Structure prediction request, 299 residues.
Amino acid sequence: MSIHDLIRAFLAHLKLERGAAANTVAAYGIDLAQFADFTLDREPELSASSLTQRHAVRFIESLLRNGYASSSIARKTAALRTFARFAHAEGYLAANFAEDLEVRRVPQRLPRSLTAQRMERILEATTGRRLCDVRDRAILELLYSSGMRVSELAALTPADVDLDAGLVRCIGKGNKERLVPIGEPAVRWLRTYLTRRRARAARRTAAHEPLFTGAGAHRLTRAAIWGIVRRAALRAGIDQRVTPHMLRHTFATHMLAGGADLRVIQEILGHAQVATTQIYTPVDRERLRRVYDQAHPRA
Prediction:
């Protein structure tokens, strides 16, 4: 079996058996294709069954020489380890050639977020009366109110939204479903958007249709939503680069500052492990000091 054939078998396993998201499968595919191309450039006749630790180490060393970021090297190493473990467990390879590869520790960076004042400026900067303006405001309100990923928001349908209960059904990583509460402003803007959209279409919006659409009633892409967020920040005069994921970080940071339990934030964000959510805990040092001063008898 060729290396590329084995990679295709692994990607099919991720998609069909493990239910990995399309973006996850694509990321694995890119990293493993890079490994295969690098290895076959040096040994064109090499088959998958002949892969050894030497090939994996040589690939990682080339990434280091070419100045790849530590986070990229860690991701590609993890992809190789997962791929090799699958190939060995399924009997494609006699040995796990990446078992002893060490995933380089990446220094933890604090997530970038916006202050409440800046977030308010971005929301209030989107005030036009056109349907697309109402849609954009609903998107911004929903991103900040729910902390959902941009891919999750892009995939929503009207059936996923219960405005009376203030809940949105999200399908996150690994096709895991969760219910996310949203605030009153997000509910109000979503209701206005759906009402205006139905009036324009002169019919009721079907439950299975995309919730957020662009030209030709096609589903908004992730790139289009990025553009909506970026333009809103520019209109608000925000000088830092603002992305949909920054609004997710902002949601989590503001929830923590407001006293929300870390486990609750984990559940809303759809993190599999609470350790992932803990990246937000160093951010709010003022609250840490305030709680300490209030709670400790000798503070």
In short: Residues 3-89 form a domain with the DNA polymerase; domain 1 fold (CATH 1.10.150). The CA atoms of residues 74 and 103 lie 5 Å apart. The chain has two domains: 3-89, 116-291. Strands lie at 161-162, 167-171, 177-181.
